[in-house]
Amino acid sequence: MIDLRARATDPEALDLGVAPEEALRSLADLRFVNRWLGNRGRFLGAVLPYLRSSDRPRLLDVGCGSGDVAVALRRALRGPLAAVGVDIKLLHLQAAPAELLRVVADAHRLPFAAGTFDVVTASLFLHHFDQSELPDLLRALYVLARRALVVNDLRRARVPYVFGKAVFPLLFQSRVSIEDGLISIRSSFREPELRAAFAAAGVPSVRIERSWPYRLLAIAEKSPA
Fold this sequence. Notes:
The protein is α/β, with parallel strands linked by helices and 225 residues long. 44% of the residues lie in helices and 20% in strands. It contains nine helices and seven strands.
């Protein structure tokens, strides 16, 4: 029986690098997950009010992959939005829609000034980092946000792992998605772990809620200037 008491630290194949065709198939699987197996409605509902309260809304999505999350926010806003997607892999950004402003960058060294964006989002991204890396990363992302940092990630539990073992081979096009999907579940968070990372980052007043299916949604809101 798999041990889920602590976060796994196994690297994911897509992070290490796979053949371009395999990477593109895996990105398509990730878009499927975000659209049909995630908490998109709740995530959009958390982010959109901050964007709508701005005269010239600006969004940064870090670790954006092929950009589907940022584009979903842009289309749901139904108004002007400067949506920027950052990923460390050029191939991932080349698969993103043209309406997304795309920047190749390391999340630890983002080329933006403090308060550049109304909202900074990180969706299914933080679990790729060891617990010791999270405080510096969260602190840096929080500094870039004028209104809020919103983190959406997996909640580690046995039910999604058993589901993934049984169903991922039937749903996914890519073998990488099957293997990485199970690693992602094992590397994901329990609520106290995510809360501790925000606390270690010195980010105040974060709200963390459980969201169906087996997601954690963290909102670190800033007081209006």
